[in-house]
Design brief:
Length: about 475
C-alpha cells in the first residue's frame, strides 16, 4: 500500500512506496505524521510535482469501498485500497431500543398523554440517522483523504441495485437491459443476498445459476423473491419440484450437504427465511445515493458516476476478485487496471462512546447491586474517560513478556478502571492486558483499523498452511 506524504507545511504530495518512506524515515528526512492511514511529513521540502489522483467510492449498506487511483489515459493505477465498515444497523437498533424504553415509561406514568409524533416537521432531504450516518462517514473520509493526497476528481457508483428492475424484470426501455449488461443487476443482488453460495447444498467454489424457487411451470414468477442461486447439479435435480419434495427425496443433495457438513432442515429453513427477507440493503443504498452524490459535489471537485452492472462487468472482464475495495476500483469506464493486488486497510466505524452512564437490563430498568452496607444501588459506568493516560478507542501496541497473554497485541483498546484493558485485534479480543505493557499508537478518532493482506499474500498463506 502506498504511503501518504506531506511537505514541511503539511500540504499533500504524491504518495510514495513503503520502501521509499522507510528510507526517508531512517535517514531523518521525514517523521511519522499519522499511523492510520500511514502518513509521513518531510522535514526538508516545500511543494513538489503532483499528478492528478482520483478517489472512487463503491457505497454499500454495511460496507463501502474506497480507492485512490492515478489515471493514465484509459489505464488506471491503484495506489490505496480501503474498506469502510458502517454501523448504520447498530444505530437503528439503538434508536429502536430507546423508543421502546420511552414508550414503556410514558405508558406507565402518563397513560393518556397526547401523541406528539405527528406535529413535528422534517426538512427536505431528511434521512433517518442510520442512513445519514453512511453519508456523513463517507463524506468525512473523502475530506480526510483529500488532505493527505492531491485528489483532483471523485467517482461514485451511483446505482448498485435497481429495485424497480428487481421487482418487475419485464420492465422495458432501460439502456442496461440491452447489450452486454443484461441481467447484471439481478445476478449481483442475488449474489449479495445468498452469500455467493448455492442456496440448497452450500457449495461455494462452483459456478452458480439463477434458479426459480417455485418453478415457472408450477405458477412461479420472475420476481426477486422467487429467485435464488443454485449450482448446476441442484438446479437440474430440483426441476419443477417443490422445496419440500426436493429436500426430502433427492439423494444427491443429501450427499452434497453431508460433504459441506450441513443438514437438509437448516438449509430448507434458510431458503424460506431469505425468500421472505425484504430488499433492506438495496433500499438503504438507493435511499442514500443521491444524498451522497450531492455531498460529493459540495467539495468542488468533478464527480463522475457509474452503475453497479458496469462495475461487475469490468471486474469480470479483467478477472479481478470480488471485494468492496476492488469494486470501487472497477467503477466507471476504463480499459486496464494495474497494481490492484495490494493490501486493504479496513476502517470500522465504532463511534466515540455514549453519554449513557447507567447500565440497563433488557426491560429498560437500571441494573442494581447490593453494596457493602447492604443497600441497593445502581450499576453505573465509570465517570472518567481516561485511565492511566489511555482512553477507549485508542490504537495501542501491547508487548506482554509472559503469562497467558504473552506476545504482541495491536488493536483498539477498551479501558477499565482496574488498569487491565481489553484490546480488540483482528484475530479476536485479548482481555486483561495491563496498562504497563501498552504503548499508544494513535488517539481514538471513532474508527478501528486493521490491514487485510493482498490476494497474493492470502494465497501464499494458504499454501503454507497446506
Amino acid at each position: 500500500m502506498s504511503v501518504f506524504v506531506l511537505d514541511k507545511q503539511k500540504r499533500p504530495l504524491m504518495p510514495c512506496s513503503e520502501k521509499r518512506a522507510r528510507l526517508m524515515l531512517e535517514r531523518g528526512r521525514a517523521v511519522v505524521h499519522k499511523r492510520y492511514p500511514f502518513t509521513i511529513r518531510l522535514k526538508d521540502r516545500v511543494g513538489g510535482e503532483r499528478q492528478p489522483l482520483k478517489l472512487t467510492l463503491d457505497p454499500g449498506s454495511r460496507e463501502s469501498g474506497l480507492v485512490i487511483t492515478r489515471e493514465d489515459g484509459e489505464n488506471r493505477h491503484v495506489l490505496c485500497l480501503y474498506t469502510l465498515v458502517h454501523r448504520g444497523f447498530q444505530i437503528r437498533e439503538a434508536l429502536d431500543q430507546r423508543r421502546a424504553f420511552r414508550r414503556r415509561r410514558r405508558s406507565k406514568n402518563m397513560r393518556h398523554r397526547a401523541p406528539r409524533f405527528n406535529n413535528r416537521t422534517r426538512r427536505d432531504g431528511w434521512l433517518p440517522p442510520s442512513l445519514q450516518h453512511r453519508v456523513d462517514t463517507l463524506s468525512a473520509w473523502v475530506t480526510r483523504l483529500s488532505r493527505l493526497a492531491p485528489i483532483t476528481s471523485l467517482g461514485q457508483e451511483l446505482v448498485r441495485f435497481d429495485t424497480q428492475k428487481l421487482i418487475n424484470p419485464e420492465i422495458s426501455g432501460v439502456e442496461y437491459q440491452q447489450g452486454t449488461l443484461l441481467g447484471y443487476e439481478v445476478r449481483e443482488y442475488l449474489l449479495e443476498k445468498w452469500g455467493r453460495e448455492c442456496a440448497y447444498c452450500g457449495d461455494k467454489d462452483t459456478p452458480l445459476e439463477i434458479e426459480h424457487i417455485v418453478a415457472k411451470s408450477s405458477g412461479g414468477s420472475n420476481r426477486i423473491t422467487n429467485l435464488t442461486l443454485a449450482c448446476h447439479d441442484c438446479n437440474q435435480a430440483k426441476g419443477n419440484d417443490s422445496l419440500e419434495a426436493f429436500f426430502a427425496r433427492d439423494k444427491g443433495l443429501k450427499k452434497r450437504l453431508r460433504k459441506n457438513r450441513l443438514t437438509a432442515e437448516t438449509r430448507y429453513q434458510r431458503v424460506i427465511r431469505e425468500q421472505k427477507r425484504p430488499l433492506r440493503d438495496a433500499s438503504a443504498v438507493n435511499a442514500t445515493r443521491w444524498a451522497l452524490f450531492n455531498a460529493l459535489k459540495e467539495t468542488g471537485l468533478p464527480v463522475t458516476t457509474g452503475s453497479g452492472g458496469l462495475t461487475k462487468f469490468n471486474r469480470q472482464r479483467l478477472g479481478i476478485p470480488k471485494t468492496h475495495a476492488l469494486d470501487a476500483a472497477c467503477v466507471g469506464s476504463f480499459e486496464a487496471l494495474h497494481d490492484w493486488n495490494r493490501p486493504t486497510l479496513v476502517i470500522k466505524s465504532t463511534g466515540r462512546g455514549a453519554y449513557k452512564r447507567t447500565r440497563l437490563d433488557k426491560y429498560g430498568f437500571p441494573r442494581t447491586k447490593i453494596n457493602e452496607k447492604g443497600e441497593i444501588e445502581k450499576v453505573t459506568l465509570m465517570r472518567n474517560k481516561q485511565v492511566n493516560a489511555f482512553q477507549t478507542g485508542d490504537m495501542v501496541r501491547a508487548e506482554v513478556p509472559k503469562g497467558k497473554r504473552a506476545g504482541v497485541h495491536i488493536g483498539r483498546v477498551a479501558v477499565r478502571k482496574s488498569g487491565y484493558f481489553d484490546i480488540q485485534t483482528p484475530s479476536g479480543k485479548a482481555a486483561g492486558i495491563s496498562s504497563e505493557h501498552c504503548h499508544l499508537i494513535q488517539r481514538g478518532d471513532g474508527y478501528g483499523y486493521h490491514q487485510e493482506p493482498s490476494i497474493h499474500q492470502q494465497g501464499e498463506g494458504k499454501k503454507q498452511v497446506a
